[in-house]
Amino acid sequence: MPAPASSLPDAPQEILDDTAIDAVIDWFTVAGRDLPWRHDDTSSWSILVSEIMLQQTPVVRVLPRWLEWMHRWPTPRDLDEAPTAEVLRAWDRLGYPRRALRLKDCAHAIVTDHDGEVPRGPEALRALPGIGEYTAGAVTAFAHHGRAVVADTNIRRVLVRSVRGEASPGAAFTASERALATNVLPEDPARSVRWNQAVMELGALVCTARSPRCDACPLSSRCRWFTAGRPAQQGPPVRRQAFEGTDRQMRGRIMALLREGPASVDQVLGLADSTADDRPQRCLDSLVRDGLATLEEGTVRLP
DNA sequence: AAGACGGGGCG
DNA sequence: CGCCCAGTCTT
């Protein structure tokens, strides 16, 4: 008869107890980066914008785009009223430009349904375009200072390593991972916010995917992965999607062309790698379908 | 549950 | 040149 999970010596709360939480928060106080969306005077909306931009995009690449963006469109109303083509140009090469469209739709929904204020609560946030489980939690924690599970790739990696002793989280955010994050989340809201910020930063700067700097980690002495000798991943590695030669790459090329200005269909089709490359036609169609391009009388342009 | 969806920079 | 990044939406 196995002991109940809560009494196991490696229960999440015992690995990441109050002392460990303090250690991570103290580390963050000293080593955390000074990022503009962490400043006290940052609006809820600008924090939401940063979270959308940071989806699958590193901080260093987001920083300049976010600064320009917030200067240009400081409120949801400003973005709602902006021309879509200008929004897509300002998105520049952040990637996944559908995010920019969704962000503009999100601004419209906030203006229309919430009187221009970022709504509170996971349900209301999740109902907004482009906001999923992670971003709803991040906005709740970082913009509204509320208690919420925030589970980005950095936090998931720290938890899985320190508590489970595994090298990296799986592709999906599973129910058991959600339970783990919930179990270690401090009860006090202010402390939970600080913990979320701190552990995310720890994953970004120290407990990194490629070359973790365990010598600089406040959790190393109790980290199950470190104390076990940093074992390699057990199961099959998470499958990465290719990029070279894909439709995604071609869509990116077409969007880059359109950011320069209107283009002829022939120009777009000329982006093919070979005469047998049928991607340009297919991708042009998909971009129009997504609302990222318009096609009229043989001219392609941003919407 | 699996696949689509960008792009760049580091080791 | 492979790997990874503050995920979301669709099927």
From TrEMBL:
The keyword Chloroplast does not apply. Belongs to the Nth/MutY family. Its cofactor is [4Fe-4S] cluster. It comes from the Bacteria. It catalyses: Hydrolyzes free adenine bases from 7,8-dihydro-8-oxoguanine:adenine mismatched double-stranded DNA, leaving an apurinic site. Transmembrane segments: none annotated. One of its GO terms (molecular function) is purine-specific mismatch base pair DNA N-glycosylase activity. This is Adenine DNA glycosylase. The keyword Mitochondrion does not apply. Its EC number is 3.2.2.31. GO terms for biological process: base-excision repair; mismatch repair. SUPFAM superfamilies: DNA-glycosylase (SSF48150). Residues 53-205 form the HhH-GPD domain.
